[in-house]
Design brief:
Chain lengths: 165, 428
């Protein structure tokens, strides 16, 4: 069940991004995105665990780049969202292998997929709501986001320092 | 890289991108990621309130016997959606299934029993910590701890049972046993003829001797059967046990020491064990089943080693063994050991040397070339010379070809008493 969901997520992620790029006339880049998607599928088969993180980063970067160039937002959002699902499922699949034979693996899978689906749906709703309300990017919003970003960066720096120690 | 860190980096990167480009879509793109991360933080396990108990199906077992390990995990806190358990095992232990890691779901106030099978070679194994890690359902946040669940497993040597071992120490103890005491009395072995005394059984009268002497009757006297003090010395020096730096004959020596200790204790003797390796490991002499257990534990722990102090057998002090008792040396023998063994013999000990044949053993790992055959012949001559010198000094030597099973090869040789300085080689 997880394997099927994972394969579908990878295909949908790469497909959405590629379609978004192709629609804007960037066929070569779309081809490269499909190629990365294919490598991602191979990496699942070959057990290259690190590749899912690289692929997620690449998908978000492609989406951000597409946003800068003004491509269709919905395809870019779908690409990132399914990449997130695929990234999660790759790790879950690895964890699931350690589960006991007598453990209810099917139940674990079912609960995880339900949780992930609901969260994806909630994310989509939140984005739709944000787009629907079209909050204007005012100066106050900017100050708020700068503050949030700075706090976040401080946290990340602190975490790295702790790791070094 | 931690998963939560990667997600945080992506979220803040998108927020930063939104700020730079002044585009709300970037922030919208970050929203699902933020929601995912938030859910992970929200459902992260707060405490890891569990207890783990460890049970072994056997605390003592034979080499490579199946031992079932059961871990009972009890959750005293909140439900744990994903709990990873990892049991730390010694390198030599093989577990079935291969992995000793396990993912389980543990609801509130519930318990889980995790069993797996162990196989281990001879040794003493201590089990202690089990690491547990609880994670949120997305594997973002972790809470880990180590739980102590101690247990000990003894894998005893491969025990080959012998029916009897005939030894002849110069001195025996006062208790009745199975060792001929070199003193007249009631027993089974003929000792001599003496004048008939009132109270002697008429069946003991030696009619042939009495017929020759008309003035008196003569009776047969038998050797008293008593128990003896026996010191089993196991040679655990690298010098004598390791060949080509990796192949060890030591396991065969351990098998021999275990079988001899077992049969001698079964005969009622007082047996002690000395493992002579990088240090001296001494199991004090004693009788019976408890002593057997102590010796088996000592043999389970025995390992080869090297030290400049115990390189030779000269530290085999006579103070360790009762005077004129029986010493059984289990050793492949080195040429430098000759003087030390002869000195022990000179001090009045009865010495039986049981020597696993190192030449046959090493040849099994070498190619069958004329040069190697010639070298083996030379070494065999040197070894024969060493054994001859030991025989001349009154040391009984039994050579064991380790390609044969110990009980089959050496058992028949130990059944009957042999003259001092008798050497015997098990047939290949």
């Amino acid at each position: 069940m997880t394997d099927i969901a994972l394969f579908i997520s990878v295909i949908l992620s790469a497909g959405s991004l590629a379609w978004g790029y192709a629609q804007a006339g960037w066929e070569t880049s779309a081809g490269w995105i499909l190629f990365i998607g294919a490598v991602w599928l191979i990496s699942i088969w070959q057990e290259w665990r690190w590749f899912s993180s690289v692929a997620l980063l690449a998908s978000v970067l492609c989406s951000a780049f597409g946003l800068v160039l003004g491509f269709e937002f919905s395809w870019l959002l779908a690409g990132s969202l399914f990449a997130l699902c695929a990234w999660d499922l790759t790790d879950f699949r690895r964890r699931l292998r350690l589960s006991a034979k007598d453990e209810d693996s099917y139940g674990l899978e079912r609960r995880h997929l339900a949780r992930l689906s609901l969260l994806t749906l909630a994310g989509l709703l939140l984005v739709s709501l944000a787009l629907y309300t079209q909050v204007q990017f005012t100066f106050e919003w900017g100050v708020f986001l700068v503050a949030v970003t700075l706090i976040g960066l401080t946290q990340v720096t602190g975490w790295f320092r702790k790791q070094d120690r | 890289m931690r998963r939560s860190l990667l997600l945080s980096t992506l979220i803040y990167g998108l927020l930063l991108g939104g700020l730079i480009a002044l585009r709300g879509e970037f922030i919208a793109l970050a929203l699902p990621f933020a929601l995912y991360l938030f859910y992970g933080f929200y459902s992260a396990p707060q405490t890891l309130n569990i207890s783990i108990e460890r049970k072994l199906s056997h605390e003592r077992a034979a080499p490579d016997a199946e031992v079932t390990m059961t871990l009972i995990i009890q959750n005293h806190g909140d439900a744990l959606e994903e709990l990873y358990l990892e049991d730390q095992l010694a390198e030599k232990i093989t577990a079935r299934p291969n992995s000793t890691r396990r993912l389980i779901r543990l609801p509130k106030n519930s318990s889980y029993a995790w069993s797996y099978t162990l196989f281990a070679p001879r040794g003493t194994y201590n089990f202690d910590a089990i690491s547990a890690e609880a994670r949120d359902p997305f594997g973002l946040m972790r809470r880990s701890a180590s739980f102590s669940a101690p247990a000990q497993l003894f894998i005893f040597p491969d025990l080959r049972r012998l029916k009897t071992a005939a030894i002849h120490p110069r001195k025996t103890r006062v208790y009745a046993g199975q060792i001929a005491a070199r003193a007249g009395g009631s027993g089974t072995e003929f000792f001599g003829v003496r004048e008939y005394q009132p109270g002697d059984s008429p069946r003991a009268v030696n009619w042939r001797a009495s017929a020759r002497h008309a003035e008196a009757l003569y009776a047969n006297e038998f050797q008293q059967d008593r128990v003896a003090d026996v010191g089993v010395v196991l040679d655990a020096r690298d010098l004598t046990n390791l060949f080509q730096g990796k192949h060890s004959i030591f396991e065969h020596s351990v098998t021999a020491a275990a079988a001899l200790s077992d049969v001698l204790l079964a005969q009622g003797n007082r047996v002690g064990l000395l493992v002579y390796g990088s240090y001296l490991s001494w199991t004090l002499p004693g009788y019976g089943k408890i002593q057997r257990e102590k010796i088996m534990r000592g043999l389970a722990k025995a390992a080869t080693g090297s030290s400049s102090v115990f390189a030779g057998l000269e530290h085999l002090s006579s103070r360790m063994f009762p005077p004129q008792s029986q010493i059984i040396l289990v050793s492949p023998l080195a040429h430098s050991d000759l003087d030390a063994i002869i000195q022990l013999r000179a001090k009045g000990y009865q010495i039986l040397t049981l020597s696993p044949n190192p030449i046959q053993f090493e040849l099994g790992y070498l190619p069958n070339s004329p040069e190697i055959q010639l070298a083996a012949r030379i070494i065999r001559l040197e070894r024969d010379l060493l054994i001859k010198r030991l025989e001349r000094a009154g040391v009984q030597v039994i050579e064991w070809d380790v390609s044969q099973k110990f009980d089959q090869a050496v058992g028949p040789l130990l059944k009957r008493s042999r003259p001092q300085g008798f050497a015997y080689r098990s047939q290949t």
